[in-house]
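Reopening closed ticket. The problem is back. First fold of the pair:
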Amino acid sequence: MINNKKNALITGSTSGIGLAAAKVLAESGYRLMLHGLESDSEGQAIAENLAQISGEPVFYCQADLSHPDEIDKLIIQATESLGSIDVLVNNAGIQYTSPLESYPLEKWQQVMAINLTAPFLAMQKVMPTMKAQGWGRVINIASVHGLVGLTKVAAMEYAEAGVTANCICPGWTDTPLLNHQFDEYAKNHDVSVEEAKVGMIKAKAPYPEMIAPSAIGQTILFMCSEAAKGMTGTALPLDGGWTAH
Protein backbone atom coordinates (compact mmCIF):
# COMPACT_ATOMS: atom_id res chain seq x y z
CA MET A 1 0.00 0.00 0.00
CA ILE A 2 1.12 3.59 -0.65
CA ASN A 3 0.56 4.78 2.93
CA ASN A 4 -0.23 3.42 6.35
CA LYS A 5 -3.73 4.87 6.48
CA LYS A 6 -6.31 2.18 5.85
CA ASN A 7 -9.93 2.40 4.86
CA ALA A 8 -12.66 0.16 6.22
CA LEU A 9 -16.25 -0.51 5.23
CA ILE A 10 -18.32 -2.00 8.04
CA THR A 11 -21.87 -3.06 7.27
CA GLY A 12 -24.46 -2.74 10.00
CA SER A 13 -22.23 -0.30 11.87
CA THR A 14 -24.64 2.12 13.55
CA SER A 15 -25.34 -0.09 16.57
CA GLY A 16 -24.24 -3.24 18.37
CA ILE A 17 -21.17 -5.15 17.21
CA GLY A 18 -20.72 -3.03 14.09
CA LEU A 19 -20.65 0.27 15.97
CA ALA A 20 -18.31 -1.15 18.60
CA ALA A 21 -15.97 -2.36 15.84
CA ALA A 22 -16.15 1.05 14.15
CA LYS A 23 -15.13 2.75 17.41
CA VAL A 24 -12.16 0.41 17.83
CA LEU A 25 -10.96 1.04 14.27
CA ALA A 26 -11.60 4.78 14.63
CA GLU A 27 -9.41 4.83 17.73
CA SER A 28 -6.68 3.23 15.60
CA GLY A 29 -6.95 5.93 12.93
CA TYR A 30 -8.91 4.10 10.26
CA ARG A 31 -10.95 6.01 7.69
CA LEU A 32 -14.42 4.52 7.79
CA MET A 33 -17.58 4.04 5.78
CA LEU A 34 -20.47 3.28 8.09
CA HIS A 35 -23.65 1.61 6.94
CA GLY A 36 -27.15 1.25 8.33
CA LEU A 37 -30.82 1.86 7.76
CA GLU A 38 -31.03 5.15 9.65
CA SER A 39 -31.78 8.40 7.89
CA ASP A 40 -28.86 10.25 6.35
CA SER A 41 -28.96 12.85 9.13
CA GLU A 42 -28.88 10.19 11.88
CA GLY A 43 -26.10 8.27 10.16
CA GLN A 44 -24.05 11.39 9.55
CA ALA A 45 -24.32 12.29 13.24
CA ILE A 46 -22.85 8.92 14.20
CA ALA A 47 -20.12 9.37 11.58
CA GLU A 48 -19.21 12.81 12.90
CA ASN A 49 -18.84 11.47 16.44
CA LEU A 50 -16.46 8.75 15.23
CA ALA A 51 -14.50 11.23 13.11
CA GLN A 52 -13.77 13.21 16.28
CA ILE A 53 -12.33 10.03 17.79
CA SER A 54 -10.20 9.06 14.80
CA GLY A 55 -9.19 12.43 13.42
CA GLU A 56 -9.87 10.87 10.03
CA PRO A 57 -12.88 11.10 7.68
CA VAL A 58 -15.87 8.92 8.54
CA PHE A 59 -18.75 8.58 6.08
CA TYR A 60 -22.21 7.04 6.16
CA CYS A 61 -24.37 5.30 3.57
CA GLN A 62 -27.94 4.14 4.00
CA ALA A 63 -28.60 0.89 2.13
CA ASP A 64 -31.00 -2.05 2.32
CA LEU A 65 -28.69 -5.02 1.79
CA SER A 66 -31.56 -7.32 0.87
CA HIS A 67 -31.44 -5.64 -2.57
CA PRO A 68 -28.36 -6.21 -4.80
CA ASP A 69 -28.59 -2.72 -6.31
CA GLU A 70 -28.34 -1.24 -2.82
CA ILE A 71 -25.17 -3.26 -2.23
CA ASP A 72 -23.78 -1.81 -5.46
CA LYS A 73 -24.62 1.67 -4.20
CA LEU A 74 -22.84 1.03 -0.89
CA ILE A 75 -19.66 -0.30 -2.53
CA ILE A 76 -19.53 2.55 -5.05
CA GLN A 77 -20.10 5.20 -2.41
CA ALA A 78 -17.50 3.66 -0.09
CA THR A 79 -14.92 3.47 -2.87
CA GLU A 80 -15.55 7.04 -4.00
CA SER A 81 -15.53 8.45 -0.47
CA LEU A 82 -12.56 6.52 0.89
CA GLY A 83 -10.53 6.05 -2.29
CA SER A 84 -10.29 2.29 -1.68
CA ILE A 85 -11.74 -0.41 0.55
CA ASP A 86 -8.83 -2.07 2.34
CA VAL A 87 -10.89 -3.74 5.06
CA LEU A 88 -14.39 -5.17 4.59
CA VAL A 89 -16.31 -6.20 7.69
CA ASN A 90 -19.54 -7.99 6.76
CA ASN A 91 -21.41 -7.48 10.01
CA ALA A 92 -24.99 -6.63 9.02
CA GLY A 93 -27.39 -9.40 9.91
CA ILE A 94 -30.88 -10.16 11.09
CA GLN A 95 -32.50 -13.06 12.86
CA TYR A 96 -35.96 -14.51 13.08
CA THR A 97 -36.73 -17.37 15.42
CA SER A 98 -39.59 -19.76 14.74
CA PRO A 99 -40.25 -23.50 14.58
CA LEU A 100 -39.47 -24.95 11.15
CA GLU A 101 -43.08 -25.83 10.44
CA SER A 102 -44.27 -22.25 10.88
CA TYR A 103 -41.20 -20.35 9.61
CA PRO A 104 -42.48 -17.88 6.98
CA LEU A 105 -40.81 -18.22 3.59
CA GLU A 106 -40.65 -14.43 3.33
CA LYS A 107 -38.58 -14.25 6.53
CA TRP A 108 -36.32 -17.10 5.38
CA GLN A 109 -35.61 -15.31 2.11
CA GLN A 110 -34.92 -12.04 3.92
CA VAL A 111 -32.50 -13.71 6.36
CA MET A 112 -30.66 -15.44 3.50
CA ALA A 113 -30.49 -12.22 1.47
CA ILE A 114 -28.97 -10.13 4.25
CA ASN A 115 -26.93 -12.71 6.16
CA LEU A 116 -25.46 -14.66 3.24
CA THR A 117 -26.12 -13.17 -0.19
CA ALA A 118 -25.10 -9.65 0.81
CA PRO A 119 -21.67 -10.71 2.17
CA PHE A 120 -21.14 -12.85 -0.95
CA LEU A 121 -21.88 -9.93 -3.26
CA ALA A 122 -19.78 -7.48 -1.23
CA MET A 123 -16.81 -9.86 -1.24
CA GLN A 124 -17.25 -10.49 -4.97
CA LYS A 125 -17.07 -6.76 -5.67
CA VAL A 126 -14.30 -5.80 -3.22
CA MET A 127 -11.80 -8.67 -3.16
CA PRO A 128 -10.54 -8.37 -6.77
CA THR A 129 -9.46 -4.78 -6.00
CA MET A 130 -7.78 -5.95 -2.80
CA LYS A 131 -5.93 -8.55 -4.86
CA ALA A 132 -4.80 -5.91 -7.34
CA GLN A 133 -3.43 -3.68 -4.57
CA GLY A 134 -1.72 -6.63 -2.85
CA TRP A 135 -3.37 -6.20 0.55
CA GLY A 136 -6.80 -6.65 2.04
CA ARG A 137 -8.73 -7.96 4.98
CA VAL A 138 -12.21 -9.47 4.87
CA ILE A 139 -13.85 -10.30 8.19
CA ASN A 140 -17.28 -11.90 8.26
CA ILE A 141 -19.24 -11.76 11.48
CA ALA A 142 -21.23 -14.97 11.66
CA SER A 143 -22.32 -16.88 14.75
CA VAL A 144 -21.52 -19.99 16.74
CA HIS A 145 -24.48 -21.41 14.82
CA GLY A 146 -22.74 -21.13 11.45
CA LEU A 147 -19.06 -21.63 10.58
CA VAL A 148 -19.22 -20.03 7.16
CA GLY A 149 -17.88 -21.98 4.18
CA LEU A 150 -18.02 -18.85 2.03
CA THR A 151 -15.15 -17.40 4.07
CA LYS A 152 -12.99 -20.47 3.53
CA VAL A 153 -13.51 -20.48 -0.23
CA ALA A 154 -12.56 -16.81 -0.49
CA ALA A 155 -9.50 -17.35 1.72
CA MET A 156 -8.17 -20.13 -0.51
CA GLU A 157 -8.68 -18.14 -3.70
CA TYR A 158 -6.96 -14.99 -2.44
CA ALA A 159 -4.27 -16.34 -0.08
CA GLU A 160 -1.37 -15.68 -2.47
CA ALA A 161 -2.46 -12.08 -3.09
CA GLY A 162 -1.95 -10.75 0.45
CA VAL A 163 -5.69 -10.77 1.08
CA THR A 164 -7.09 -12.65 4.06
CA ALA A 165 -10.65 -13.74 4.79
CA ASN A 166 -11.67 -14.81 8.26
CA CYS A 167 -14.86 -15.30 10.21
CA ILE A 168 -15.67 -14.36 13.78
CA CYS A 169 -18.42 -16.46 15.37
CA PRO A 170 -19.79 -14.73 18.46
CA GLY A 171 -21.92 -16.41 21.08
CA TRP A 172 -24.10 -14.43 23.46
CA THR A 173 -23.18 -10.83 22.69
CA ASP A 174 -24.51 -7.74 24.44
CA THR A 175 -26.50 -6.20 21.58
CA PRO A 176 -30.14 -5.11 21.18
CA LEU A 177 -30.71 -7.99 18.75
CA LEU A 178 -31.19 -10.37 21.68
CA ASN A 179 -33.54 -8.24 23.77
CA HIS A 180 -36.65 -9.92 22.40
CA GLN A 181 -35.36 -13.37 23.32
CA PHE A 182 -34.49 -12.27 26.84
CA ASP A 183 -37.89 -10.63 27.28
CA GLU A 184 -39.66 -13.79 26.12
CA TYR A 185 -37.60 -15.99 28.44
CA ALA A 186 -38.30 -13.67 31.39
CA LYS A 187 -42.03 -13.75 30.67
CA ASN A 188 -42.20 -17.52 30.21
CA HIS A 189 -40.15 -18.28 33.33
CA ASP A 190 -41.52 -15.48 35.53
CA VAL A 191 -38.07 -14.01 36.21
CA SER A 192 -36.42 -10.64 35.69
CA VAL A 193 -34.71 -9.80 32.42
CA GLU A 194 -31.31 -9.96 34.14
CA GLU A 195 -32.13 -13.41 35.50
CA ALA A 196 -33.29 -14.39 32.02
CA LYS A 197 -29.94 -13.36 30.55
CA VAL A 198 -28.03 -15.47 33.07
CA GLY A 199 -30.34 -18.42 32.56
CA MET A 200 -30.07 -18.39 28.78
CA ILE A 201 -26.32 -17.83 28.78
CA LYS A 202 -25.51 -20.59 31.27
CA ALA A 203 -27.70 -23.03 29.35
CA LYS A 204 -25.28 -22.78 26.42
CA ALA A 205 -21.89 -21.57 27.67
CA PRO A 206 -19.81 -21.91 30.85
CA TYR A 207 -18.73 -18.26 30.78
CA PRO A 208 -21.57 -16.55 32.70
CA GLU A 209 -21.49 -13.18 30.94
CA MET A 210 -22.26 -11.86 27.48
CA ILE A 211 -19.40 -10.96 25.17
CA ALA A 212 -18.79 -7.21 24.90
CA PRO A 213 -19.16 -5.93 21.32
CA SER A 214 -15.90 -4.02 21.80
CA ALA A 215 -14.11 -7.36 22.30
CA ILE A 216 -15.19 -8.35 18.81
CA GLY A 217 -13.92 -5.00 17.57
CA GLN A 218 -10.53 -5.70 19.14
CA THR A 219 -10.47 -9.11 17.44
CA ILE A 220 -11.19 -7.43 14.11
CA LEU A 221 -8.32 -5.02 14.74
CA PHE A 222 -5.97 -7.94 15.39
CA MET A 223 -7.09 -9.66 12.18
CA CYS A 224 -6.20 -6.47 10.29
CA SER A 225 -2.69 -6.38 11.77
CA GLU A 226 0.52 -7.70 10.28
CA ALA A 227 0.64 -10.26 13.10
CA ALA A 228 -2.40 -11.92 11.51
CA LYS A 229 -1.25 -11.84 7.88
CA GLY A 230 -0.85 -15.63 7.89
CA MET A 231 -4.27 -16.14 9.46
CA THR A 232 -6.85 -16.83 6.78
CA GLY A 233 -9.79 -19.15 6.25
CA THR A 234 -10.38 -19.43 9.97
CA ALA A 235 -13.67 -19.45 11.85
CA LEU A 236 -12.88 -18.07 15.28
CA PRO A 237 -15.53 -18.67 17.97
CA LEU A 238 -15.71 -15.83 20.47
CA ASP A 239 -18.40 -17.51 22.47
CA GLY A 240 -17.63 -17.89 26.14
CA GLY A 241 -16.92 -21.58 25.66
CA TRP A 242 -20.20 -22.33 23.83
CA THR A 243 -18.57 -24.61 21.24
CA ALA A 244 -16.53 -26.34 23.96
CA HIS A 245 -19.57 -26.90 26.18
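Second fold of the pair, where the issue appears:
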Amino acid sequence: MLSFRRETEYAIQFLRTLSRAKKDISLNDVSRQIGVSFLFVQKIVRKERAARLVAAAKGASGGYRLLVSPKKLSLRKIISITEEECELLPCCCADFKCTKGKGCALKGRVSKVNVELLKMLDKVKLSDL
Protein backbone atom coordinates (compact mmCIF):
# COMPACT_ATOMS: atom_id res chain seq x y z
CA MET A 1 0.00 0.00 0.00
CA LEU A 2 1.22 3.47 -0.81
CA SER A 3 1.70 5.52 2.32
CA PHE A 4 3.53 8.60 3.46
CA ARG A 5 5.45 9.08 6.67
CA ARG A 6 3.88 10.68 9.74
CA GLU A 7 6.13 13.68 9.21
CA THR A 8 4.38 14.34 5.89
CA GLU A 9 0.95 14.09 7.50
CA TYR A 10 1.97 16.53 10.23
CA ALA A 11 3.57 18.90 7.70
CA ILE A 12 0.25 19.05 5.86
CA GLN A 13 -1.63 19.63 9.12
CA PHE A 14 0.82 22.36 10.13
CA LEU A 15 0.44 24.23 6.84
CA ARG A 16 -3.33 23.79 6.94
CA THR A 17 -3.40 25.33 10.43
CA LEU A 18 -1.31 28.29 9.26
CA SER A 19 -3.54 28.78 6.23
CA ARG A 20 -6.62 29.12 8.44
CA ALA A 21 -5.06 31.38 11.06
CA LYS A 22 -6.09 35.02 11.03
CA LYS A 23 -2.67 36.13 12.33
CA ASP A 24 0.80 34.74 12.96
CA ILE A 25 0.66 31.69 15.19
CA SER A 26 3.21 30.29 17.63
CA LEU A 27 4.64 26.80 17.31
CA ASN A 28 3.28 26.00 20.77
CA ASP A 29 -0.24 26.84 19.62
CA VAL A 30 0.13 24.83 16.43
CA SER A 31 1.60 21.92 18.38
CA ARG A 32 -1.44 21.86 20.69
CA GLN A 33 -3.93 22.26 17.84
CA ILE A 34 -2.62 19.38 15.74
CA GLY A 35 -1.62 17.17 18.69
CA VAL A 36 2.07 16.83 17.80
CA SER A 37 5.04 17.41 20.06
CA PHE A 38 6.66 20.83 19.94
CA LEU A 39 10.04 19.33 19.00
CA PHE A 40 8.54 17.45 16.06
CA VAL A 41 6.79 20.61 14.84
CA GLN A 42 10.15 22.41 15.02
CA LYS A 43 11.70 19.71 12.82
CA ILE A 44 8.93 20.13 10.25
CA VAL A 45 9.19 23.93 10.32
CA ARG A 46 12.92 23.81 9.52
CA LYS A 47 12.16 22.00 6.27
CA GLU A 48 9.25 24.27 5.39
CA ARG A 49 11.31 27.40 6.07
CA ALA A 50 14.10 26.06 3.86
CA ALA A 51 11.50 25.50 1.12
CA ARG A 52 10.31 29.11 1.64
CA LEU A 53 6.76 28.09 2.48
CA VAL A 54 6.66 29.69 5.93
CA ALA A 55 8.31 32.58 7.74
CA ALA A 56 8.61 33.64 11.36
CA ALA A 57 8.04 37.02 12.94
CA LYS A 58 9.63 37.86 16.28
CA GLY A 59 8.06 39.70 19.17
CA ALA A 60 5.03 39.53 21.41
CA SER A 61 2.61 39.18 18.49
CA GLY A 62 5.02 37.11 16.40
CA GLY A 63 4.76 33.56 15.20
CA TYR A 64 4.65 31.70 11.92
CA ARG A 65 2.75 32.53 8.76
CA LEU A 66 2.31 30.97 5.37
CA LEU A 67 4.23 32.67 2.54
CA VAL A 68 2.42 30.94 -0.31
CA SER A 69 -1.25 31.22 -1.13
CA PRO A 70 -3.11 28.05 -0.05
CA LYS A 71 -4.79 28.10 -3.47
CA LYS A 72 -1.40 27.79 -5.19
CA LEU A 73 0.30 25.31 -2.85
CA SER A 74 -0.15 21.77 -4.15
CA LEU A 75 -0.18 18.61 -2.12
CA ARG A 76 2.66 17.36 -4.33
CA LYS A 77 4.85 20.32 -3.33
CA ILE A 78 4.19 19.73 0.36
CA ILE A 79 4.89 16.01 0.07
CA SER A 80 8.12 16.65 -1.82
CA ILE A 81 9.50 18.56 1.18
CA THR A 82 9.31 15.62 3.58
CA GLU A 83 9.47 12.61 1.27
CA GLU A 84 12.51 11.81 -0.83
CA GLU A 85 10.52 10.59 -3.80
CA CYS A 86 6.88 10.38 -4.74
CA GLU A 87 7.06 7.33 -6.98
CA LEU A 88 5.18 4.06 -6.73
CA LEU A 89 8.25 1.99 -7.61
CA PRO A 90 11.94 2.89 -7.63
CA CYS A 91 12.03 2.35 -11.40
CA CYS A 92 9.65 5.29 -11.87
CA CYS A 93 12.43 7.65 -10.75
CA ALA A 94 14.22 9.44 -13.57
CA ASP A 95 17.71 8.45 -12.38
CA PHE A 96 16.94 4.77 -11.71
CA LYS A 97 19.19 2.30 -13.55
CA CYS A 98 17.19 -0.85 -14.28
CA THR A 99 19.11 -4.07 -14.85
CA LYS A 100 16.24 -5.57 -16.87
CA GLY A 101 16.29 -2.89 -19.52
CA LYS A 102 13.44 -3.15 -21.99
CA GLY A 103 12.49 -6.59 -20.69
CA CYS A 104 10.66 -5.15 -17.68
CA ALA A 105 6.93 -5.79 -17.73
CA LEU A 106 6.12 -3.35 -14.93
CA LYS A 107 7.87 -0.06 -15.64
CA GLY A 108 5.71 1.12 -18.55
CA ARG A 109 2.40 0.43 -16.86
CA VAL A 110 3.40 1.56 -13.39
CA SER A 111 5.00 4.71 -14.80
CA LYS A 112 1.66 5.66 -16.38
CA VAL A 113 -0.10 5.20 -13.04
CA ASN A 114 2.65 7.19 -11.34
CA VAL A 115 2.26 10.08 -13.80
CA GLU A 116 -1.49 10.19 -13.12
CA LEU A 117 -0.90 10.11 -9.36
CA LEU A 118 1.48 13.07 -9.59
CA LYS A 119 -1.04 14.99 -11.71
CA MET A 120 -3.71 14.39 -9.08
CA LEU A 121 -1.39 15.55 -6.28
CA ASP A 122 -0.67 18.70 -8.29
CA LYS A 123 -4.39 19.42 -8.59
CA VAL A 124 -5.13 19.14 -4.87
CA LYS A 125 -4.32 22.46 -3.19
CA LEU A 126 -3.84 23.25 0.47
CA SER A 127 -7.04 25.31 0.32
CA ASP A 128 -8.94 22.13 -0.67
CA LEU A 129 -8.01 20.31 2.53
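Update: turned out to be a display glitch only; the data is intact. The longest strand covers residues 54-57. Helices lie at 6-20, 27-34, 38-50, 75-82, 107-123. Please close again.
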